[in-house]
């Protein structure tokens, strides 16, 4: 069991499982984009870890940029998406891959997607390490998914609990019986 701040977490997805899955997704991206020089736009802060490993496994030419927006505080989504910072200026005609650490309700990407499309992107695909299908509330396609998970709160590998736990190498889930510890 692992303690992060005031909460207890248990093992969930091992580092080896993550690395294997990241490699598989990178291979899919290699196949899918070949000579198209995709622009990967990762959503900070959570996706920093995933995008670093993913991009290191991709063998085609690609570019990486970051945007920042936040909709989450504590262990429950605040459903208050803020402004998008850092969207690259020239997206016209580019093939974009939006990279997230986790898609929960899907609100964050619902806000980001139209902004990227409006900027003239030729295509926009979504790649997320984790997806909570039972929480997802929208109908846009999520092309690359690392792992589908239950509606558990998780930390590690970029994901935080009030900014703690991001640097853990594996993913841990909140112990249900200690939610209110
Ligand atoms: P959405 O907008 O509801 O899809 O939430 C997406 C964002 O919420 C992610 O980028 C994370 O920052 C955060 N988030 C959602 N679920 C979790 C979780 O289980 N642990 C940590 N952060 C989460």
Essential attributes:
11 strands; alpha/beta; 181 residues; five-stranded parallel sheet; single chain; binds inosinic acid
Description of the molecule:
By secondary structure, the protein is α/β, with parallel strands linked by helices. The protein has helices at residues 15-33, 48-57, 107-118, and strands spanning 2-4, 7-13, 39-44, 63-68, 72-73, 76-77, 95-103, 123-131, 144-148, 154-155, 171-174. It is built from three helices and eleven strands; from the N terminus they run ββαβαββββαββββ. The strands form three sheets. A five-stranded parallel β-sheet has the order 4-3-7-8-9, sandwiched between helices. A four-stranded antiparallel β-sheet has the order 1-2-11-10. Strand 1 (2-4) and strand 2 (7-13) form a beta hairpin. Helix 1 (15-33) packs across helix 2 (48-57). The site of inosinic acid (IMP) has 18 residues, from strand 7 and helix 3.
Taking the sheet with the most strands, its summary is:
5 strands, parallel
Based on secondary structure, the structural category is alpha/beta
Per DSSP E runs of 2 or more residues, the count of β-strands stands at 11
| Bound compounds | inosinic acid
Strand content: 25-35%
Rg: 16 Å
Low-confidence stretches: none
SSE order, one letter for each helix or strand? EEHEHEEEEHEEEE
Helix segment count?
A: 3
Q: Indicate the percent of residues in helices.
A: 10-25%
Shape: globular
Q: Average pLDDT value? A: 93
Q: Name the strands of the widest sheet in spatial order.
A: 4-3-7-8-9
Separation, N- and C-terminal Cα atoms: 14 Å
